[in-house]
Amino acid sequence: MFTVRIQSEDFDAAAEAAALTRGRTDVGAVVTFTGLCRAQDATGGAPLIALTLEHYPGMAEEEIRRLIEEAGTRWPLLGATVIHRYGRMVPGDNIVLVVTTSSHRGAAFAAAEFLMDWLKTRAPFWKLEEREDASSWVAAKDTDDEAAERWG
Amino acid sequence: MFTVRIQSEDFDAAAEAAALTRGRTDVGAVVTFTGLCRAQDATGGAPLIALTLEHYPGMAEEEIRRLIEEAGTRWPLLGATVIHRYGRMVPGDNIVLVVTTSSHRGAAFAAAEFLMDWLKTRAPFWKLEEREDASSWVAAKDTDDEAAERWG
Amino acid sequence: MKVLYFAWVRERVGRETEEIAVPEGVTTVADLAAFLKGRGEGYARAFENPRVVRAALDRRHAKPDTPLAGAREVAFFPPMTGG
Amino acid sequence: MKVLYFAWVRERVGRETEEIAVPEGVTTVADLAAFLKGRGEGYARAFENPRVVRAALDRRHAKPDTPLAGAREVAFFPPMTGG
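YS: structure for the whole thing
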């Protein structure tokens, strides 16, 4: 049960998690990760007014589906759902959701973290930051590349 | 914002996650882990009818609070909520919830996994399994000890 | 001293809690477990393999060599299986 | 061949997409980037540092030395910052 959705609307993490467990008695572990838009990054500077997420329609869904399938070969997943939003978001808004289910917690945690690490470096999305003093494209982080690379 | 609850009632993972993010713009990552009662364990055998969770009132809450505080010294958490149920549960029922929030995903994931690993080995709860052929106390798993020990 | 038992330790001992007058010379968790083991058949079965019985003193995990000194409540139980 | 641009590559090139007749001798992703770089000021700025421009061929990540052979759609974009 692998689901990918690229959408501008908000998502409901609880409903997505419920869809992966409803009527089942084999799921022992559900991990959900929600990534949100923050007002302030670590470097300080002017507070963020909004983020606009641009994406590559078609490829975004296909690439995330490939990442989920890769996760499914590495861990015994019972289900996985990834929803990534695009468009303009203000601080506090949801950006991305990953839900993984498995019989055991180790697989659910590892797959969720793997998906997030690879989403960051492979899913074709780009963030434009709007601050009081300027708008600028977010630069990719070396730490994200390192997080993805640890999966080998 | 650290919360621990030991209760017989079910919990609402979404409401707990929402309570840690509401009105804030500094949370970038929310990880929730839900542990559920499964019908069948890996060893096969008769299907599970129910689990009854016994706990040590007072110590259960105190020990989990100590684990959360330890997590808070290791990672820059903005919030953490742990709810552990006791009493009788049937397959598909929720048993335990861990929610962690942080500015960044690495801390939220690591703290949630740390809390689950240590809950398994340190929180004073014991599972009595009810199967068609017998009732028996669940034996502690070496793999749980190993999972906890990797945190050093 | 208040003593509590949980899970199969409780079932074997046959009670949830009791007040114990700790005898002279019983100074550690392991001493207390050995003393309790001699109190009858149920206790003997509960503590037959002391390595698999865990203990808490005043609601904190304790080791066999932890001194009882000052504790008001001690609990004995199997390895935990929550989560 | 359909070419798409995203984020600041799109802004610098000044368009989202275009049809390109790939000249003889342009056989890899890197060749195409070098060819596009010569098409004007916006392109020159978009491809001024080819190492920071990523590419996809038919919606799959491609490397500079990936052959264009058979691809219908190529996209150029900065390193991704989703998630």
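YS: worth flagging: Chain A has four helices and eight strands.
IM: good catch. Also Chain A has a mean pLDDT of 94.
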